[in-house]
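User: I'll paste a sequence; please echo it back and then give the predicted structure.

Assistant: Echoing your sequence first, then the prediction.
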Amino acid sequence: MELLTPDIGVVFWLAVVFLIVFFLLKKYAWGPILSALESREKRIEEALRAAEAAREELRTLKREQERLLEQAKQREQEIIAEAKKIKETIIEEAKEEARLAAQKILKEAEQEAYLIKEKALSEFREYATSLVISLTETILRKELKDKKDHEEYIQRLLSETTIHVAGRN
C-alpha cells in the first residue's frame, strides 16, 4: 500500500525533478521543436501555395492548349475548304480545256470531211467529164445512117457506162 499513499518527500522530489525536466525541455527542446514545427508549417503553406499556383498554371496551360487545338481545327477546315475550291477550279479548267479541244477536233474533222467530199466531187466531175468526152468521141466517130440506130447506139453506150460506173464504186 505504500505505492498508493506516497510519502511527502517522494512527492516533493518528484515535483522538483519534474520542474527541472520541464525547465530543461523548455529551454533546450521546446524552442527548437516549436521553431522546427513553425518552419515545417511555413514550408507546408508554401508548398500548398506553390501547388495551387501550379494548378492554376496547369489550368491556364490547359485553356491555352484547348484554344490552340481549336485554332488548329479551324485552320484544318480552312485548308480543306481551300483544297476543295482548288480541286473544283482545276476540274472546271480541265472540262473547259477538254470542251475546247473537242470543238477543235470536231472543226478539224468537219473541215477534213468537207475537203474529202470536195475531192471526191472533183474526181467524180473529172471522171464524168472524161466519160462524156469519151462517149462523145465514140459517137462522133461512128456514123449512123438513121436517127433510130443513132438513139439505140447512145442508149447502149449509156447502159454500158452505167454498169461500168456502178461496178467502179
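The mean pLDDT is 86. The CA atoms of residues 26 and 146 lie 173 Å apart.
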